């Protein structure tokens, strides 16, 4: 009578090489997020600034000046008041903007993001 000793168990887990690859991928994602986050925050600051500028003035010059003041306080560097597209539909004033942000990653590799926004209700 032969007896089988113990149960054969398969080893489970991650190898050192697998761990290094996973950490490298997570590191790259972390760096990308760290570089994109400030531009996203700036985009939302611009949206708030144009909403505020829309209520602050009635002429194109007043709206641009109000935006420039908001941009100074909010550290907005991507656009200025002169870059805003301001249109009037009767008594309703619509302000829109569009710009590109180039984020250098590694060497010649960059990330180009197109940002656009408007006060128009969609």
TrEMBL record:
Pfam families xref list: DUF4845
Transmembrane regions: 12-34
Organism superkingdom: Bacteria
Keywords: Membrane, Transmembrane, Transmembrane helix
Identification of the protein by name: Putative transmembrane protein
Originating species: Collimonas fungivorans (strain Ter331)
Keyword Membrane assigned: yes
């Amino acid at each position: 009578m032969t007896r089988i000793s113990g149960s054969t168990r398969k080893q489970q887990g991650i190898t050192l090489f697998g761990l290094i690859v996973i950490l490298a991928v997570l590191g790259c994602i972390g760096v990308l997020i760290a570089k994109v986050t400030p531009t996203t925050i700036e985009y939302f600051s611009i949206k708030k600034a144009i909403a505020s500028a829309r209520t602050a003035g009635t002429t194109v010059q007043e709206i641009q000046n109000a935006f420039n003041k908001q941009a100074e306080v909010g550290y907005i560097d991507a656009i200025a008041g002169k870059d805003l597209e301001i249109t009037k539909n009767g008594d309703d004033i619509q302000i829109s903007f569009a710009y590109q942000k180039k984020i250098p990653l590694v060497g010649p590799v960059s990330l180009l993001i197109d940002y656009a926004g408007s006060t128009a209700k969609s």
